[in-house]
UniProtKB/TrEMBL annotation:
UniProt-listed SUPFAM superfamilies: Enzyme I of the PEP:sugar phosphotransferase system HPr-binding (sub)domain, GAF domain-like, Phosphoenolpyruvate/pyruvate domain, Phosphohistidine domain
Source superkingdom: Bacteria
GAF domain ranges (all copies): 25-171
Catalysed conversion reaction: L-histidyl-[protein] + phosphoenolpyruvate = N(pros)-phospho-L-histidyl-[protein] + pyruvate
Subcellular location(s) of the protein: Cytoplasm
Name of the protein this chain belongs to: phosphoenolpyruvate--protein phosphotransferase
The family this protein is said to belong to: Belongs to the PEP-utilizing enzyme family.
The protein's enzyme class: transferase
Cofactor: Mg(2+)
Enzyme Commission no: 2.7.3.9
Amino acid sequence: MIRDMAAGPRVLLKRLRELMAEPLEPQERLDRIVRDIAANMVAEVCSLYVLRADSVLELYATVGLNPNAVHLAQLRLGQGLVGTIAASARALNLSNAQEHPAFAYLPETGEEIYHSFLGVPVLRAGRTLGVLVVQNKTMRHYRDDEIEALETTAMVIAEMIASGDIGRLSRPGLELDLSRPASFTGIAFNEGVGLGHVVLHEPRIVVTNLFNEDSDEELRRLEDSLGSLRLSIDDMLERRDVAFEGEHREVLEAYRMFANDRGWVRRLEEAIRNGLTAEAAVEKVQSDMRARMMHMTDPYLRERMSDFDDLANRLLRQLLGRGPETIAESLPKDAIIVARSMGAAELLDYPRDRLRGLVLEDGAPTSHVVIVARAMGIPVAGQMKGVVSMSENGDPIIVDGVEGAVHLRPQPDLEAAYAEKVRFRARRQELYRELRKKPSETKDGVKVDLLMNAGLAVDLPQLAEAGAAGIGLFRTELQFMVASTFPRAEAQEKLYRDVLDTARGRPVTFRTIDIGGDKVLPYFKGSAQEEENPALGWRAIRLTLDRPGLLRTQIRALLKAAGGRELKVMLPMVTELGEIAQAREIIDREVRHLSRFAHHLPTSLKLGAMIEVPSLLWQLDELMQAVDFVSVGSNDLFQFVMAADRGNTQLADRFDTLSVPFLRVLKQIADAGLRNHTPVTLCGELAGKPISAMALLGLGYRSISMSPASIGPVKAMLTELPLGELTAFLDDNLAGPAARLPMRALLQAFADDRSIPL
Ligand code: PEP
Ligand code: MG
């Protein structure tokens, strides 16, 4: 007779389903489950061990071992066979357990008479929550279908643990592992501290319907959903959807490969034949795979596992007919979004007033979503490996965007310490708000313009909130970067008009689109070749002069938006003066075109250049004569002067922006501006740090532009600064033989001596 291998597991799952539906106390339910498993598998013993937060596995239920050992017998993670299974997240199938080197005898259980042993990990989202074991007196080897059945049962138990049902049996101080605090360290992407609750950006779908009624029907559902999944991936490969902005094509290719992986599909089908629903099968196969891959050290393979996770999640959504639209719905008031990676536009879908932070498993400081998060003023920490699979929706979480740390399910004392930090920061903000009413002047009465940097509509409310004197740098490329196709002329014009309306007469400097380098537009395939040094490549003004259609459209939108008002336009990455002349020609032609059609033109048009490329340092006087104003882009200028990639974290602290040579460069620029009566601003990150802003004022800068959050701290410094003294101090130290002490330390001492808050 041919035995139906799937009959055993199916009968067992049917029993479990009935048990789950019965109104039982958790202990009673567990006792019955182990009894049913033992009966179904013809085993003399069946035991469940649950992992506690203190890394101890506690016996929670047994049939066959001494019942008095329940909640008393325990093993450390890694100790004995059970501890080994939990630590490795792999099943153990032994015909003579006592011979295994890891075997540890627990006298209280009375298990010495059992020889064969099968133990499987209880897994959820790749994490081990416990171990399920069956034992027999005879020396037997358990079959594959029996292992499969026990693993499937373990999955049901994982859900019971996750639902909190089993957790109710834990004793105070001995809570389950699922509620264990976890800390992660990575990189701080945006300043600030946020306390709140986890919102998984792509919520892991919780499968509640585990048992199928009809395997054939479930197999059909799986096939349909796999078909749609494959189609949607092909579609994405063709369209490169905005949600995949920044993701590599390679990832999508990997998705396609996985979606067609025969081994994967076979395992899914097998789980269904054993009695699971299609979605429970996806969950089980994924969990097994995650546990197996957990031990891999190859970063490439681990990365592929994350891709596989994403794919499984997509398949679950297909099966449950759920789109990715769940955002905003039932969002807590203190949401901290946890994502592997995310498109910039997706972040904008969350209501700003409920966001307290963003945690990314990947991400880079220059990724678009980080730029947008900065503009929204929310703390961001990234490169937090493993945070997505450890988090559950609603878990308490702290994001520390100062230190680059994340604390999941924090202990009360840690939470209290952070809450104090948040209060402290709020008090300081209050102080800065007070300062807004004060004039922006040094202690000795020198007026300074504190401007802000912006680039998106979400920045605009900050103009009033931060008390900025205007917008010193409007990065127009951000609108292009968060879009999925080139923004149309009308959309550009609308944004520029909104900016000018919000500014209400305060000056606004629009920088023409600065793409290329690290600012990639996924939908723009400009360059025919891969650039070896994109920062030195085809970018900014170089690119727009070669594609004049882009620049023309933008200039026209700016001219129209500024009808009847002043318009300031600034060119990025100018290297030689001919570029300014070429751009001016394009602008003049647009002005002529619009006046021919009787358009309302700006009352005045000022053209400026950014000083970012060192070549300009040897033609400063000619430059100042050729433009109406200049602005130092200290981020790029510093990277080119020091030959140090601004995005390379390994070099981040190597060279000091306040070193003598760089300060001398900055002073030359300020002096040339004064000599030529050409206004000079600085709009790089340097302007936003109180100590470097102080240095800039000492070098002669009277206008600096920074992120809105920096205006308060810089103003607090400014109002306490005796500028005359600082100017003399810097002149002395920069003129003589290169300073003996690092300039940063000298400036810090200068401020400390005079109680200037930095
Ligand atoms: C700079 O380079 O300093 C600058 C302000 O431009 P961006 O940071 O946008 O390159
Ligand atoms: Mg720049």
